[in-house]
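name: query_chain
kind: protein
chains: 1
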Amino acid sequence: QVQLVESGGGLVQAGGSLRLSCVASGRSFSTYGMGWFRQAPGKEREFVAAISRSGNITTYADSVRGRFTISRDNVKNTVSLQMNSLKPEDTAVYLCAANRLYSSRTSKDYDYWGQGTQVTVSS
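structure:
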């Protein structure tokens, strides 16, 4: 069992950067694959990035590859998403998620979710 709390969202101009953090409570953080998803108004939840248990494998949506970087610290029980070169289309609620078995691009594979943090990118 794990609880996730995201932070770091806010308002930023296009081209700017934000760093999102997700703090996990629970004794088994290092056993979970972790992912970031986002959901914009009127749109379905979208995969952003995922990272394996040890952090050695990362996966990105095509729309963010080269701009976003996912990382984790299994000592601090955190996963982060560094977002650079932000675009207005990145505006969404960003959610941190944990998968008991593996990191995945599919939201249905994840077992635990944070409440989300709002990212707004102005043009």
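note: The first strand starts at residue 3 and ends at 7.
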